[in-house]
Design goal:
- By secondary structure, this protein is an alpha/beta fold.
- It has two domains: 145 residues, 3-Layer(aba) Sandwich (Rossmann fold), CATH 3.40.50.1970; 187 residues, Dehydroquinate synthase-like, alpha domain, CATH 1.20.1090.
- It binds nicotinamide-adenine-dinucleotide.
- The site of nicotinamide-adenine-dinucleotide has 28 residues, from helix 4, strand 6 and helix 9.
Length: 352
């Protein structure tokens, strides 16, 4: 066994079906009285149901959460925090809504309860990405990490099949990069392998039958594990590629991750043999990159960047941005290597 450091992140996790019923007891345990409920405009119904269940402890609903956590939206929510004498937040939604709760907590230190409804995993990380004047910055602080996460499988049943598949592959990417992170360690690797295994089994079943509660439960379990991976291990080439592509071309978050993952894995497979070992156990034989590319095909999701709005003319600039300022990666990040990777990913060709 090699030496390692493991930084455990303190958060309380309640997992299961119907676990939203435990929300009142959590609020009491945390001695909170006036909570602001956060949601996107699309999920205001979930926010209202939660308001009705916690009655006197709801200070209001802010249903303006949106992608990329814009600072002006956070400021609008902060006005409600101040005027409502709010002492905590409840975020019900995906990474965008969780991001708003984190942005509020970063500025006020208010405790957060999160009910995740996608597999993005943001609820398990002390990381906040927010945008102002079109510029995205990332902050890391323990004030950002949510105190309580209530995973209620029932809240994920409505996530459409295609978004479930891409959100799941987004989560798998956190687990994959944790396997070969510079600060990888045996504990995070255990969670990564279990997360990959959970999604490999769950996602095809969800696409086949979106209201399959057991499949949904397996996927949400995988999301939790993969979120821990993202929070505890440094990310590498895959996440750098997705950050650059998302920022330069405003591409959809989860779809971008799904398309890039097989290619990033192909790039790193030789330098990080652990990927092959884990995928051999989780997904059967053959190279991990091909297994992931075929998996995305089986799930029926986009496999080409051109199909989600990236212009061909942007490939060279993106390759320059990634190789000019790379994250640490197990294999050196070269301009030629990234250019070839992006050219294949843009066209939807199999990874090589
Ligand atoms: P999202 O939160 O933007 O949700 C996408 C859409 O799906 C929204 O309209 C939302 O209301 C809807 N939706 C969510 N759950 C639903 C459900 N169960 N049923 C029906 N509709 C539902 O998408 P996301 O992929 O979860 O989050 C992406 C954002 O999270 C990105 O901005 C990304 O940068 C951020 N993120 C941050 C971290 C971190 O650690 N800081 C980690 C992962 C993702």
């Amino acid at each position: 066994m090699d030496d390692f450091i493991y930084d455990g992140l303190p958060s309380r996790v309640i997992f299961g079906r119907g676990t939203v019923a435990k929300l009142g007891a959590e609020i009491e345990r945390m001695k909170l009285k006036r909570l602001l409920i956060l949601a996107t405009p699309q999920q205001v119904g979930e926010a209202e149901a939660i308001r009705d269940s916690i009655a006197g402890n709801c200070a209001g609903i802010f249903a303006g959460a949106t992608m990329h956590t814009p600072v002006d939206v956070t400021e609008a929510a902060l006005k409600m925090v101040a005027s409502g004498e709010v002492d905590g937040t409840i975020a019900v939604g995906g990474g965008s809504t969780t991001g708003l709760g984190k942005a509020i907590a970063f500025r006020t230190n208010l405790p957060q309860i999160v009910l995740p409804t996608t597999y993005a995993g943001s609820e398990m990380t002390p990381i906040l990405g927010e945008t102002e004047n079109g510029v995205k910055t990332t902050k890391r602080s323990m004030a950002i990490l949510p105190e309580v996460v209530i995973y209620d499988v029932d809240f994920t049943l409505s996530l459409p099949a295609s978004l479930s598949a891409t959100s799941g592959m987004n989560a798998m990417a956190h687990a994959v990069e944790a396997l070969y992170a510079r600060d990888s360690n045996p504990i995070t690797s255990l969670m990564a392998e279990e997360g990959i295994r959970a999604f490999a089994s769950a996602l095809p079943r969800i696409v086949e039958q979106p209201d399959d509660g057991d499949a949904r439960s397996d996927a949400l379990y995988g999301a939790w594990l993969s979120g821990v991976c993202l929070g505890t291990a440094g990310m590498a080439l895959h996440h750098k590629l997705c950050h650059v592509l998302g920022g330069m071309f405003n591409l959809p978050h989860a779809e971008t991750h799904s398309i890039i993952l097989p290619h990033a894995v192909a790039y790193n497979a030789e330098a990080a043999p652990k990927i092959g070992e884990v995928f051999g156990r989780a997904m059967g034989g053959g190279p991990a990159a091909s297994a992931l590319f075929d998996f995305a095909g089986k799930l029926g999701i986009a496999r080409a960047l051109r199909d989600i709005g990236m212009p061909e003319s942007g490939i060279a600039a993106a390759a320059e941005a990634v190789s000019g300022d790379p994250y640490w990666n197990p294999r050196p990040v070269t301009h030629a290597g990234v250019l070839a990777l992006l050219t294949r990913a843009w066209a939807g060709e199999a990874p090589a």
